[in-house]
Design a protein that fits this description.
The protein folds into two domains: 153 residues, Ferritin, CATH 1.20.1260.10; 34 residues. It is built from six helices and no strands. The longest helix has 61 residues.
């Protein structure tokens, strides 16, 4: 589609967001399943419901425009979700994986906030006041979701991830200490070089008649 006017750009950006939201609807259940923290699971589940409502708002806007919402693939969201899949496939401490999932989710939120901020402004400039109000509602929801994720990261997930890292470091130190103890015991049991020489000399000394 040629971008001959601001309305053309507005429609194209809306289509991009519509596809992005539908991709996210499929990804959020997988992210919920991959999360270990109950608080994080609840946050993802809640955002799934919110995302469905956001898609419905977009449907309403497209109906008023008399335009189909389909026909465009959001490559940016596709890439962000692919990165999230890589996180879900990693092995590691559950709390660290949760922290990585939050990072992935916040990248998504920031991308969506940027997109909705633009289309809200376009709607206002074009005089689509009802659409602008709907888009602002979604923008507020995205900001709230990002805030909740930040709170989770600061109060629960990242703290647990740090503790897991400290525990791992302590385990390594204990293992190193055990290895050093075993080496010291082996050195104590092993006769000194002088003692070995004396033992050999004693063996070679002829017996008295």
């Amino acid at each position: 589609m040629a971008l001959e006017s601001l309305r053309d750009l507005y429609v194209e950006e809306l289509k991009d967001l519509y596809n992005a939201e539908n991709q996210l609807l499929k990804a959020l259940p997988r992210m919920t399943k991959a999360a270990s923290s109950e608080e994080l699971k609840a946050a993802f589940t809640e955002h799934l419901d919110v995302t469905q409502k956001q898609v419905e708002r977009l449907d309403q806007i497209f109906t008023e425009l008399g335009v189909s919402p389909k026909g465009k693939k959001c490559k940016a969201m596709e890439g962000l979700i692919e990165e999230g899949k890589e996180v879900m496939q990693e092995d590691g401490d559950p709390s660290v994986i949760d922290a990585a999932l939050i990072a992935s989710a916040q990248r998504v939120e920031h991308y969506e906030m940027a997109g909705y901020g633009c289309v809200r402004t376009f709607a206002t400039l074009l005089g689509y006041e009802d659409a602008a109000a709907l888009l602002q509602e979604t923008l507020d929801e995205e900001g709230e979701a990002d805030k909740k994720l930040t709170e989770l990261a600061e109060t629960v997930i990242n703290v647990e991830a740090e503790e897991a890292e400290e525990d791992e470091a302590e385990d390594e130190e204990e293992a190193d200490g055990e290895d050093e103890g075993e080496e010291m015991e082996a050195e104590e049991e092993e006769p000194a070089p002088e003692a070995k020489t004396a033992e050999k000399a004693q063996l070679k000394k002829p017996a008295k008649k």
